[in-house]
UniProtKB/TrEMBL annotation:
Origin species: Lutibacter profundi
Single Gene Ontology MF annotation: ubiquinone binding
Listed InterPro entries: NADH_Q_OxRdtase_chainM/4, NADH_UbQ_OxRdtase, ND/Mrp_TM
Primary localization: membrane
Subcellular location: Endomembrane system; Membrane
Family named by the database record: Belongs to the complex I subunit 4 family.
Name of the molecule in the record: NADH dehydrogenase
Length: 495
């Protein structure tokens, strides 16, 4: 069995075994074992990739190919580069942490963990696919369980939020499918056979007219799940209604499919279209960065604050990708990793606070650091990392993005960059406001003095997410060099 297919097979086997679980204890132990194996596999993949890359200069390594539908030339075709590898590692960390954070779920636990792991199998399949059709199938497998996870296990107006999310993402999928088939029917522009294989299509000179038509379709189709302004409205309501682990996967993993798809498909296969449309989408992404930051500062509910902050920080990813240079792209990928870890941390912390105080309203919370020291300490550290403090992953990501953006000498790019950089000030305001109001100050509610401390499984989940945030911040060079090597083929397509 090849090393990559196991990332789909292990979740499927875990789900099959989970189907026979008889109680909560069995469900969570099976889920923990399955996702711990997946996590160990992702760590092994990193070292295996580094070893393989030392002797293999192919764009993708560990490639495998098997015919799926011969008449349409659809294959189960897989492979990874450094970008895929780090995204797989991110997913495995957040899914494993999500299992720990959901340790005490008592409402249909077996069905909850099955839905969670099915979603993760779609994400893993998406990141390893090098066939457009197969990639799209895994994308839908990842998206569909969100409706159940929010609609059944969510809170508040959960049915409305689940339906809004589903309709927006299904609409985006319809647009994306048109773009994918547009690429497919132009994949023989140089006289070859029609193909869905990404590496084969990259060798074809798709006509400029076709690229200008299909690039915005593919870009928007993927960018909607990455909270592109003005198609972001599904995200805050979905986050607010989702249970904690689902919010973690939603923001930390699922929304990363957008930026990855934009980079892997739209930018790589339609480079001339990217050059033509980049300025238009730059304006939208810059607007999303500022809008999300100001939206966060206006919120009174902790989940809504983090949801709008996600819109802002994911806008940075799209903004960096549209700058079309190595430094900004390196920042975009690190920002995807950083945002995934930090947003998952924030949602986990918010879930722990809500589970004890039964409120997410900022005005009703105060002095929690004295009562919940471990949760409070991680909350403060996460907040500082989120606003880009040196020594954490956010600083590395944002510095690369802003330096890469300033590499453009023209006034248009410089002005947009200054506008986007100003979002850091707004981010500092809402982060420091939250930390100061919730964690510091006097204890205003005597009932909070009896709140239970963090449990062992909550601590494990938080530490799992915090460790890579610090590692990326303190030792970023190895990661950056690995990513930059995989970015080079994308740059060559733009020249």
């Amino acid at each position: 069995m090849d090393i990559l297919s196991l990332f789909v097979i292990v979740p499927v086997l875990t789900v099959l075994i989970l189907a026979f679980a008889k109680n909560l204890k069995q469900a969570r132990i099976i889920s923990l074992i399955g996702m711990a194996i997946q996590f160990a596999m992702s760590i092994n993949l990193i070292f295996a990739y580094i070893k393989e890359r030392a002797v293999n200069n192919d764009i993708m390594v560990f490639t495998k190919d098997a015919v799926w539908f011969e008449s349409l030339n659809i294959h189960y075709s897989i492979g990874v580069d450094a970008i895929s590898v780090v995204m797989i590692a991110l997913t495995s960390i957040i899914v494993l942490a999500g299992v720990f954070i959901s340790w005490k779920i008592d409402d249909l636990p077996k069905e909850f963990f099955i839905s969670l792991i099915v979603l993760s199998s779609g994400v893993f399949g998406f990141f390893i696919s090098t066939d457009l059709f197969t990639l799209f199938v895994f994308y839908e497998i990842a998206v569909i369980p969100m409706y159940l996870l929010i609609g059944i296990w969510g809170s508040g107006p959960k049915e409305n939020s689940a339906m809004k999310l589903t309709l927006m993402l299904m609409g985006a999928s319809a647009v994306l499918s048109v773009g994918i088939f547009g690429i497919y029917f132009n994949s023989n522009a140089d006289g070859g056979a029609l193909t869905f294989n990404i590496l084969e299509i990259a060798k074809v000179n798709i006509p400029l007219a076709a690229q200008n038509i299909f690039f915005p379709l593919v870009f928007v189709g993927f960018a909607v799940i990455g909270a592109l302004f003005p198609f972001h409205t599904w995200s805050p309501s979905g986050h607010a209604s989702a249970p904690t682990a689902v919010s973690m996967l939603h923001a930390g993993v699922l929304m990363k499919l957008g930026g990855y798809g934009v980079f892997r498909i739209a930018m790589y296969l339609l480079p001339l279209g990217a050059l033509s449309w980049s300025n238009f989408f730059l304006v939208l992404s810059a607007t999303g960065v500022i809008y999300g930051a100001f939206g966060a500062i206006m919120q009174k509910d902790l989940k809504y604050v983090n949801a709008y902050a996600s819109v802002s920080h994911l806008g940075l990813v799209l903004f960096a990708l549209l700058m079309l240079n190595k430094t900004a792209w390196n920042g975009a990928i690190i920002q995807s990793l950083s945002h995934g870890l930090l947003t998952a941390l924030f949602f986990a912390l918010i879930g722990m606070v809500y589970g004890r105080t039964h409120t997410r309203e900022i005005s009703k919370l105060s002095g929690l650091m004295k009562i919940l020291p471990f949760i409070g300490a991680i909350y403060v550290i996460t907040g500082l990392a989120y606003l880009g403090l040196p020594g954490f992953s956010g600083f590395v990501a944002e510095m690369n993005i802003f330096v890469g953006a300033f590499e453009h000498p023209d006034m248009f790019h410089r002005i947009l960059t200054i506008i986007v950089v100003s979002s850091i000030v707004v981010t500092a305001v809402y982060i420091l406001r939250m930390v100061g109001k919730i964690m510091m100050g006097p204890i205003t509610n005597d009932e909070y003095r009896k709140l239970p401390k963090a449990t062992w499984y909550e601590k494990v989940g938080l530490v799992l997410l915090m460790i890579p945030v610090v590692i990326i911040g303190v030792m970023p060079l190895g990661l950056s060099e690995m990513i930059k090597a995989s970015i080079q083929p994308f740059l060559e397509r733009l020249l």
